[in-house]
Design brief:
The complex is a heterodimer of chains A (420) and B (289).
Chain A (H helix, E strand, L loop, with lengths): L2 H16 L10 E7 L4 H19 L3 E3 L2 E3 L1 E7 L9 H15 L3 E4 L4 H13 L4 E3 L6 H8 L1 H4 L2 E3 L4 H19 L3 E7 L2 H16 L3 E8 L7 H9 L4 E5 L4 H11 L5 E5 L8 H4 L8 E5 L9 H14 L9 H18 L4 H9 L3 E3 L2 E3 L9 E2 L6 E9 L3 E6 L12 H5 L1
Parallel strand pairs in A: 1-4, 1-5, 5-6, 6-7, 8-9, 8-10, 10-11, 15-16
Antiparallel strand pairs in A: 2-3, 12-16, 13-14, 16-17
Helix pairs in contact in A: 2-13, 3-4, 7-8, 13-14
Chain B lengths: L1 H28 L6 H17 L5 H24 L6 H21 L16 E4 L2 E4 H23 L1 H11 L1 H6 L4 H23 L9 H16 L4 H21 L5 H15 L10 H5 L1
Antiparallel strand pairs in B: 1-2
The chains are: A alpha/beta (420), B mainly alpha (289).
Amino acid sequence: MKKKPLWAVCSILVLWIYVVPCGAGGEPIVLGLPSSLGYLEAYESKNSAQLAIEEINAKGGVKVGGEMRPLKLVWADTRDSEPGIPISEALMAYEKLILQHTPTAIIAGFLTSEALLASMDITSKHKLPFLATIPMSPKFQEKVAKNYDAYKYCFRLCYDAPSFTKTYLGALQLINKDFGFNRAFVMTEEALWAKAIGNISMQWMKKQGWTITGNHSFPKATSDFSSTLLKIKNTQTQVIVFISSMPSVVIFADQWRNMRVPALLTGLLPALCGDENWKIHSGKINGIVNVVEAGCIPVKAIPESQAFYDAYKKRFGKAPQASHATGATYDAVYILKDGIERAGTLDPDKIVAEIEKTDRKGSIGRVRFGKDHQVIFGKDPQKEALSVDFQWQQPGKRVPVYPPIAATGKILLPDWMKKK
Amino acid sequence: MMGMLVYGTVNSCILVLMAIGFSLTFGISGIANFAYGALYITGAYLAWHFLNSLGLFYPLSIAISVLITGLIGVVIYRGFLFRVRGIPLSEVIVTFGLGTGMLEAYRSIGLTGHGYKLPPFVDGSLELFGVYIDYQRLIIIGLGIVLLLLLWVFTHHTKLGLAFRGMAQEEETALAFGIEPESTAQASFGVGAGLAAVAGVAVLPLSLLNVEDGSNILILVLAVGIVGGLESTFGIITASFIFGFSQIIVSTYLSPLYSPVVTLVSIVLILTLKPSGLFGSSKELEERV
């Protein structure tokens, strides 16, 4: 007799654990997230996917053929961005995730372009709709365009290197217009994507009449930039173009400020994107011009970016800190939901056909895919997805400066340049 | 040219600071501590934690983190190396395994991202011979000099320091004079680990705290040790200045990409021409033969 209440309590507990959190009936639809989870863009993508899934499940889940089904997130740490980890190991982790959890679709996915490109064959083999939101190599859409039948399952929501570069070059145009600067020193991390962006930027600058005062590639673990900064100073450089995803940018920025190098520091600097950086670096990043994807920064012209930004901050206690991917992954979950609901089935080919028709206002702006499955980026969030140039300004604000529709301020020179 | 001189000196002092603890431990215990990079980053992470999570006074955070890292060094020796001391391959495997394990553990508990930064001891910069240099780098130069002086005083005027020197010269003879080799080696491990933490908290305010730095500095420290002579303090200083200046010269006149090449080529050349290093004596007999 005494055992009955205990048995009943256990049953209720089990029911509570398994049924209540879902907020929706039916078997869960599994979404896989394979990425290098120790890195900012990857773990923030995992967070934002979780946020979107919680929101969707709270509203009943995804409607598939008349049945409401919850979403469930599974993930694998592929570690593809860590030193010494070969791509083959990242791919093994990816395939293990697929075989173990049989996901319906994949989101975010890998940190490096090398791993993403290599994984596309596995994605095709398992016929899994894949919405990538982190790597930036244009080779991705080239592969889709060249062999559509094999790679039609692969989509990308984040900016790629050419669209990022277009936004960045907008900032250079502004600098040229406002200050008359036309002498630039280009610094790129020793990585293909960074060099590619550096080369595109240099070609553009030369066409626009800029003088390239120098072009350095540097190893990822560089701990001192004094020799390069002395060179920059001696060549009367006015703008530094710095392309690197490594933390070494912090060393560079510190030395740039301490050596009072009279050149504006600009570029792709993901380590200095999030709003917490001002506090982390005690305001010493003042004046740096950087690029960020909408969603990772709230943009007035995109109300959805503000809504996502606030929801993320509320759920995880701090705002997104990555330069891109966080908002795009959130949007990716909703795009999948819409695609599945429109398809009315979990058949991957039908889902892919519906994702191709996507036209949705998300946190990154208006989301539509090109024929090569790359989301279309531009200057107007009513028509395209948006990335933004911003400058760190007193008192610790990220002030959008380009494109004009997102701009709330103008580029200012650092104090030591003003005095000059 | 003045810029190269100033920053070459700074970079050399950073290398001295990084390598001195490794050299001390090897010179006394004969153990190459491949967990040194992990201890370097441990000291910095601990200081960050005491400063930001517990809100302790910065100098106190540094002092406690150096002390704890030193104790970790003692625990590593007592717990893992005590049984394998004298078997070089096992020593390397144990220290390398522990170092890698520590770094992986930091990664797995989430000590990644761009949010970990130690503040500089003193903020700002000054103009020195027409070159702007930040106070933190000047402090590193001063700290390197002070640390070397303190080590000299310690090894020449304290009982433990004299025991260190006795062990470094000839372990069996030292034993005959009542110096207990195991406890002396253990102490050298603790002091070496503490010095790794000192280097970490002094150098890492120039950058972000990054798990990968634990592996990166190990390569630099090994290069300095191999070229200068692992057990020779004078050799460490000389090699640090060779690397410090050659790297800045190569970066200026060729490309920063060639800086790591200088390090690796130097290791190969020295191992081929003088395996003990410029001022080392561990393989002197073999070299003469």
